[in-house]
Amino acid sequence: MAKLLVKQVRSKINCPLDQKRGLEALGLRKMGQIVEHDSNPTILGMINKVKHLVSVEETK
């Protein structure tokens, strides 16, 4: 299964509450933080919701 590196690149200030909760569910608490997740539909859906706030890299 592929791994995803998710990095928060933009601030969550002035974002809707569901997007703030999406970032927290991904494990992102502050700018520049990087987390690793397995690629599955749940995680991909959360990333899609906040795609303008994060950058995603696929690793093996």
Can you give a write-up of this model?
With 60 residues, this protein is α+β, with helices and mostly antiparallel strands. It has a single domain (3-59), classed as Ribosomal Protein L30, Chain: A. The chain has 2 helices and 3 strands; from the N terminus they run βαβαβ. It has a 3-stranded antiparallel sheet, with no helix packed on it. Helix 1 (17-26) packs across helix 2. The termini are close together.
Order of strands, main sheet, comes to 2-1-3
CATH class: Alpha Beta
Number of strands: 3
Q: Quick check: average pLDDT?
A: 96
Work out the count of structural domains: 1
Percent of residues in helices = 25-40%
Going by CATH, the architecture would be 2-Layer Sandwich
General shape? globular
- Tally the helices: 2
Protein name: Large ribosomal subunit protein uL30
Subunit structure: Part of the 50S ribosomal subunit.
GO cellular component, one term: cytosolic large ribosomal subunit
Organism: Flavobacterium hiemivividum
